[in-house]
UniProtKB/TrEMBL annotation:
<keyword id="KW-0408">Iron</keyword>
<keyword id="KW-0679">Respiratory chain</keyword>
<dbReference type="InterPro" id="IPR008972">
    <property type="entry name" value="Cupredoxin"/>
</dbReference>
<keyword id="KW-1278">Translocase</keyword>
<dbReference type="GO" id="GO:0020037">
    <property type="term" value="F:heme binding"/>
</dbReference>
<dbReference type="InterPro" id="IPR014222">
    <property type="entry name" value="Cyt_c_oxidase_su2"/>
</dbReference>
<feature type="domain" description="Cytochrome c">
    <location>
        <begin position="249"/>
        <end position="338"/>
    </location>
</feature>
<protein>
    <recommendedName>
        <fullName>Cytochrome c oxidase subunit 2</fullName>
        <ecNumber>7.1.1.9</ecNumber>
    </recommendedName>
</protein>
<dbReference type="InterPro" id="IPR036909">
    <property type="entry name" value="Cyt_c-like_dom_sf"/>
</dbReference>
<dbReference type="Pfam" id="PF00034">
    <property type="entry name" value="Cytochrom_C"/>
</dbReference>
<dbReference type="InterPro" id="IPR034236">
    <property type="entry name" value="CuRO_CcO_Caa3_II"/>
</dbReference>
<dbReference type="InterPro" id="IPR045187">
    <property type="entry name" value="CcO_II"/>
</dbReference>
<dbReference type="InterPro" id="IPR009056">
    <property type="entry name" value="Cyt_c-like_dom"/>
</dbReference>
<keyword id="KW-0813">Transport</keyword>
<keyword id="KW-0472">Membrane</keyword>
<feature type="transmembrane region" description="Helical">
    <location>
        <begin position="91"/>
        <end position="115"/>
    </location>
</feature>
<keyword id="KW-0812">Transmembrane</keyword>
Length: 341
């Protein structure tokens, strides 16, 4: 009975460990590295695991050998020989941990220098991409200052190139983390941190805020989209191009709604954005609304009418009284914001 009671105590922990493997997200794990930083982290996790496994096996082997060899025999009431100090053993259990710690320390220290090296890649030179990241409650701003525009919630990078990120925070402390590409670095108000990332292959890599920053912290997601250099240059050219007037009547009406309701004051369309809200220059190609909802017309309307109900603590203004006709036109306009086609 006592054994069953003990087992029940470990059941919640067992379920928690089981559920950690049920995330179902692609490119949102450090266990499937897609860049040199994440590969280094993964290799060192394996090295640490191997060292810990070796120590565990050896310790338990010695424990059970001693338990079997020196167990008390029936009728043996003599006190065992008492040992006070053993120089050979003491040297052994001092030297072995030093060796194991050295095995872990050498790659860790050399790796720290590699991770901290935010100098541009000499092979890329002047074409190195620099991105200024600003964390807000609860969204991300990506300023391509050299290129002259701002992206919101989705940051584009070229494949196979070292990209330098300059990290800031507008309000409270956040943490910029793309598990498949590298480790996390905090964004702190008043302090500038730096990070570099590189993607080995094209793809969409999901990012998270890894620092508790408010009620909607868990929904502060973003995406890193890695493109081949030619595709990346085409995207940059599209973002730099002058914004064209909508050709469809409904979308044109939506632009008027967008401006009449003051949306343009927070959300930039082309050029450099502001700290008030995410830039919407390439909104048509986003797959999510508010950082986590599927980008459907229904979800977009729900977000515009009552953002607080979907993302607590955000600063988006609500438009519950907007007419259905204006809402339809506004959504059509947002769907027309496409720099890639």
């Amino acid at each position: 009975m006592k054994l069953w009671k003990t087992a029940w105590r470990f059941l919640p922990l067992s379920l928690l460990l089981f559920l950690t493997g049920c995330l179902g997200e692609t490119n949102l794990t450090a266990l499937d590295p897609k860049g040199p930083q994440s590969q280094w982290l993964f290799d060192n996790m394996l090295l640490s695991l191997y060292v810990m496994a070796l120590v565990t096996i050896v310790v338990f082997a010695i424990f059970f050998i001693i338990l079997a060899k020196f167990r008390r025999a029936p009728g043996d009431d003599e006190i065992p020989k008492q040992v006070h100090g053993n120089t050979a053993l003491e040297i052994t259990w001092t030297v072995i941990p030093i060796i194991l710690l050295t095995i872990l320390a050498v790659p860790t220290i050399t790796g720290q220098f590699m991770l901290a090296d935010t100098e541009p890649d000499p092979e890329v030179g002047e074409d190195t991409v620099y991105i200024k990241v600003i964390g807000h409650q609860f969204w991300w701003q990506f300023d391509y200052e050299d290129e002259g525009f701002t992206a919101g919630q989705e940051v584009y990078i070229p494949v196979g190139e070292k990209v330098i990120f300059e990290l800031h925070a507008q309000d409270v402390q956040h943490s910029f983390w793309v598990p498949a590409l590298g480790g996390k670095v905090d964004t702190i108000p008043g302090i500038t941190n730096h990070l570099w990332l590189e993607a080995d292959e094209p793809g969409v890599f999901k990012g998270k805020c890894a620092e508790l920053c408010g009620p909607a912290h868990a929904l502060m997601d973003f995406k890193v989209i890695a493109l081949e250099r030619n595709d990346y240059d085409a995207w940059v050219a599209g973002m730099q191009a002058e914004v064209e007037e909508p050709t469809e009547t409904l979308a044109a009406q939506g632009r008027q709604v967008f401006e009449a309701n003051g949306c343009i004051g927070c959300h930039a369309i082309g050029g450099m954005g502001t700290a008030a809200g995410p830039a919407l220059s390439d909104y048509a190609n986003r797959t999510v609304v508010a950082g986590y909802l599927e980008n459907t017309d229904e979800n977009l309307e729900a977000w515009i009418r009552d953002p607080e109900s979907l993302k607590q603590g955000n600063n988006m203004l609500a438009y519950p009284d907007m007419s259905d006709a204006d809402m339809e036109a506004l959504i059509a306009y947002l769907r027309s914001l496409d720099v890639q086609n």
